[in-house]
Amino acid sequence: MRQRHLWLAISCALALPGCSLIPDYRRPDAPVAGAWPQGEAYRQETTSGQPMAAELGWQQFFRDPALQRMVRLALENNRDLRQAVINVEAYRALYRTQRSELFPQFDTEAVSSRQRWPADYSRGGGGGSGSNGSGSSGGGGGGGQTGGGSFIQSHYSITLGTSTWEADLFGRIRSLTQAALEDYLATEETWRSVHIALVGDVATAYFAWRTDQALLELTKATLASYQESLALIDASESAGVASQLDVRQAHTLVDQARAQKALYTRQIAEDANALQLLLGGAIPADLPPGLDINGRMLADFPAGLPSDLLLQRPDIRAAEHRLLAANANIGAARAAFFPTISLTARAGTASRQLDGLFDAGSGTWSFVPTINLPIFTFGRLEANLEYAKLRMDADVARYEYSIQTAFRDVANGLAARGTYGEQLQAQGELVDNNQTYYELARQRYDEGVDNYLTVLDAQRELFTAQQRLLSDRLLQLDREVGLYKALGGGWQQDSVAGGSLAQATTNPAPL
C-alpha cells in the first residue's frame, strides 16, 4: 500500500502543469521597403505563370547538362555540406538530451555489502547501515561476532527509483528545451543555406571554367593571327617596305598575346582545382557536352515580393530560430528566481540474508522531496536575466541585418538583370564593328592605301572587345545565379508547386 502511495505521488508530480515564463514572441518588423527598388537600372518584373526562384528546381534552372552533373556530384560528395549535415545531427542529439530532463530518469540498483562494526556498536543494539533509503539495524541476524567482540553485518538490496528529478513547476527546463529545439532548427536551416550556397558556387565556378576555356581558345587564335602578321611585317621590313616601328609594334602584340595565353592557361587550372574542391573529387572525364557559353544557359524566374524572403531564405529562417531560442532563454532566466522542487524516490527489497530478499515483509521505499529557494545570490540571477535579454536584443539586430542583407542581394541581382542585357548587346555590336574595322584595315593595307600599323591597331581592338564580351557574359551569369540564390533558389532539385513549398522547406536533415 505504501509503495502504491509512493508511485501515486510521483505520478501527481509528473501531472503538474507548471507555468511558462517565456515572453510572448512577436516577429520584428522587416526593416526594408515593401517593394523592390525602381529606377533606370531595374526592369518591370512579370510573373507570367513562371515558378518563383525557391520553387524552381536547380535542375530546371541550370539548362547545361554538364553543370547539372557537377551539381549532383557536389551534393553527394562535398565536405562542407557533409559537415553541415553532421552539425544538424549533433544539435538534434543536444535537443534530445535537454528534453529528457523533463522526465524522471529511472534506474535499478543491486547492492551487496559486508561491514565490520566495533564491539560497542553491537552492545548498543543500534547503528547500522542503509542503502538507497532502505536500512537495517546493527546486530542480529546476518552478522556474526569476531575476535575482540567486533561485529560483521551483511546487507543485500535491490531497488528501482529516480534520483533528484526536478518538477518543472515554473518552466525552467521547458524553456531550456524550447531553446535547444530552436537551436536545432536553426542549425537545420543553416544546412539548407550551405546546400543552396554550394549549388550556386558550383555554377559560378563552372561558368568561370568554361569562360576561361573560351578566352584561351580566343587568345590562341589571336596569337596565331599576330604571329602571321609579324612574319609578314618582317618580310616587308627586309624588303624595305615596312619600318622598324612596324616590326616592334607587331612583336608587342605577339608578346601580349603570349602573356594572355599563359594567364588563361593558369586560370583554367585554378578553375578546375576550385571545381574539384566543390565536387569533392576529380572532374568526371565523361561529362556530357556543355552548352555554348553565349547560349541560353539559365531559365527565367520572377523576383516576387520582399515579404517572400522571410519564407524563402533559410538564413533568415535560421536567424529567427536563434531569436526564438534567445526568447526561450529569457524564460529560463526568469524561472531561476523561483523555488525548485526536486524529488528522489526509490522502492525495492532489502534483507540481511541473500535468500531473504524476496520474503514477505522485505519491501523498502523512500520518498525525499527537496525545495530549494534562492535567497542571497549577490546579483547572479539578475545578471543572468540581463544577459539573456541583451542576447535577445543582439539576435533581433542580427535577424534584421539578415533581412537587409537579403534585400540588398536581391536588389543588386535585379539591377544586374535590368542592365546586363543592354550591356551585352552593345558589347556584341562593338565586336562586330571591330571585326569590320579590322577587315577594312587589312583590305586597305593589301591595296597599298594604308600602313600596317592600322591593321595591328584593328587587331588589338578586336581582341580586346572579344575578351570583354566573354567577361561581361560571365558576370551576367554570375549575377543571375546570385539572384537565384538570394531568392532562396537551389534547395529543390526539381520544381515544386507553390503550395508545396512550405512543406518542402521543412523536411528534416537526412541521416
Overall description:
The protein has 511 residues and is α+β, with helices and mostly antiparallel strands. Helix content is 57%, strand content 12%. The chain is built from twelve helices and seven strands. The chain has helices at 2-15, 58-61, 65-77, 79-99, 119-124, 172-238, 244-279, 309-312, 314-335, 380-446, 452-486, 501-504; strands at 106-117, 128-131, 134-137, 143-145, 151-167, 340-351, 363-372. The strands form two sheets. Strands 1, 4, 5, 6 and 7 form a five-stranded antiparallel beta sheet that branches. A two-stranded antiparallel sheet has the order 2-3. Residues 125-141 and 502-511 have low confidence and may be disordered. This is Multidrug efflux system outer membrane protein. Its main location: membrane.
What is the secondary structure topology, with strand pairs?
Layout: H1 2-15, H2 58-61, H3 65-77, H4 79-99, E1 106-117, H5 119-124, E2 128-131, E3 134-137, E4 143-145, E5 151-167, H6 172-238, H7 244-279, H8 309-312, H9 314-335, E6 340-351, E7 363-372, H10 380-446, H11 452-486, H12 501-504
Antiparallel strand pairs: 1-5, 2-3, 4-5, 5-6, 6-7
Family: Belongs to the outer membrane factor (OMF) (TC 1.B.17) family.
Keywords: Cell outer membrane, Lipoprotein, Membrane, Palmitate, Transmembrane, Transmembrane beta strand
GO molecular function: efflux transmembrane transporter activity
